# Entry
Amino acid sequence: MAIFNQGVFLGYYMTAFGWSPAVLSAGPVVFNIWAGIAGFWVGRIVDDRGPRKVLLAGAGFMALAMIGFGLVREIWQLFPVFLLLGSGFACIHTITLCKIVARWFVRHRARTMATATIGAAERDGH
# Structure
């Protein structure tokens, strides 16, 4: 939801508002940079309070960002929405997932982390 839908929204904005791809491409850059920075805080919060609240907060941020994308009418409004999306992504993806997987899996930890972060199923069912 956080990464693969960005092109859909940006394509809509180009068509509906005539905004340039060059300016719109700054949104995903803001998203990625902010998600990386926010990850420092997310990791500490997960260590202190556990992953459940962080995942719930991340889902809330993501939901608000999806609503925000639908409400954008001026180009400047796009950037706070991407910051919100980056916050949600930082809460629900790599850091939190890997902390959960590391607690639950020992024998197949690396495979399980890869599966969790890319969302792919194992091909042989083991």
User: Anything to note?
Assistant: Confidence is low (pLDDT under 50) at residues 120-126. Residues 26-49 form the longest helix (24 residues). Helices lie at 6-17, 21-24, 26-49, 51-71, 75-92, 94-104, 109-118.
